[in-house]
Amino acid sequence: MENNxxxxxxxxxxxxxIDNIDxxxxxxxxxxxxxxxxxxxRKWLYSWLLDPNIPGNMHKQFDKWLGILIVANLFSLxxxxxxxxxxxxxxxxHYFDIFxxxxxxxxxxxxxxxxxxxxxxxxxxxxxxxxxxxxFAIIDFLAVAPFYLQAFIPVDLRVLRSLRLLRIxxxxxxxxxxxxxxxxxxxxxxxxxxxxxLVFPSRFSGGLHELFDTFIAxxxxxxxASVILESVESIHYILNLQFVVLDSVAVAIFxxxxxxxxxxxxxxPKYQGAITGRFNQARSPSTFIDFLAIVPFYLEVFLHxxxxxxxxxxxxxxxxxxxxxxxxxxxxxxxxxxxxxPVMSAASFIxxxxxxxxxxxxxxxEHEAQPEKFENIPQSIYWAVITLASVGxxxxxxxxxxxxxxxxxxxxxxxxxxxxxxxxxxxxFSDELIKDREGLKANLFKILKDGKxxxxxxxxxxxxxxxxxxxxxxxxxxxxxxxxxxEIEENLKALPVHLIAQRPVHAIEYFxxxxxxxxxxxxxxxxxxxxxTAKDLDRLTASExxxxxxxxxxx
Length: 555
Prior knowledge:
- The protein is mainly α.
- It folds into 4 domains: 41-185, Voltage-gated potassium channels. Chain C (Four Helix Bundle (Hemerythrin (Met), subunit A)), CATH 1.20.120; 191-326, Voltage-gated potassium channels. Chain C (Four Helix Bundle (Hemerythrin (Met), subunit A), Up-down Bundle), CATH 1.20.120.350; 341-417, Helix Hairpins (Orthogonal Bundle); 454-524.
- Helices cover 66% and strands 0% of the residues.
- It contains 25 helices and no strands.
- It has helices at residues 23-26, 41-49, 59-80, 83-86, 90-114, 127-132, 135-152, 172-185, 191-199, 206-230, 233-238, 240-264, 276-282, 285-303, 328-339, 341-366, 377-388, 401-417, 419-449, 455-467, 472-493, 497-500, 504-523, 529-537, 542-551.
- α9 crosses α12.
- The protein starts with 22 loop residues before the first helix and ends with a helix.
């Protein structure tokens, strides 16, 4: 049995690393707070529910769900102004209002009860009186007072219902801390740098960037929903004016966002240059989608007297693509499609060829028997698509023996042919994730080598973990693997190849190291640069080039 224990004289890489890395803290993820049950009830409840200084408690979740309820109340108030919506659902609106008031009342009572534990009020002579007279508490009181006044005072207080709009001000409790954090992170930075931190994620963004993205996402969903509902004639007749106003506000918001991104993008090193940088940003996929989200509105406004451009309204649904900016998986998918496009185009050509041949054969075999259904080859293409896709609506089907026999064969072929693009994408997507993880692993070598993690490096790890959807456990495993691989790498440096080959374990690890280095070479080179140079200079044999392609998943 082989002794795999490293020699005492061999270099030990682990000593160069941070001994205890809190990966959860590194990724900005909060663990569940550990709050002692021995605390007094009031202090325990405040620590668990409202204390913003205890990581992992319910403070953020509490504010999050309150924010959702506040926004829902705003929409409820808007829909109440539309009789066609409000009158048939008056009872549902009433019950929702009661539920909201109960929740807001409980929140107010909790904050009143827990005020002596709050750092803002505990130093005052009367903590609860200090809470009641604070701006946030006044807003909270005004948010529920109209309901109770109307319920218990026998006078017409319908005018007070308008005060329910003050509930929107409760969002200030969420926005203000995020803004204060944003101001602290961007202290001393220019206006453009602050704008860049607001619209683009960075270590200067803080929670305000997340609120900004959420705000944009809400308006995207609202505008898309309005486009869908606008197609219903009965709804469009009732809410025509509301749809116009909503679309105008949405376009104004999206236009402002677009201008902010174009203006501030030059703060990114990738987009340096007042003109060229902004042009490159404008033609990037995500920003181009932002442009498509607003351009139909302006074309229709300014050219409606010249051309009938009402058909452009349907392109407002492209606003839904704006949400892809918040999905890292979508960016990976686009890269995969771009990388595998030659193979996919070849598969698409085969599918198109088979489709035309199938339609032609169907026309030849079925035209005489069913001239009304197989009138010509273009009409037969519909039948061919349905058959190859194995959908089989049954509206067009062969009646001749040869036609049925061909349909049976084509249905079986279609299962495999139509599955090729999906299989290619799935395989390429998996390969891309593996390459990205290998890239993260390679960067971890560099980051952890000096024994410390800087703020810039921390942000990089967080961004990569988010993009690759890696959990704390997975990052921990990756760091352990980095340490292990580097130890082996350092141990193997002192050994010649023939001694490495004597130990299968060492040989395998050495082979993995070589492949990892080859993949790192490919990652740091532009597309096709390696192969083109190798071909031009004739520096690689055919077998060596084939091996390179296999390692990169291109063969």
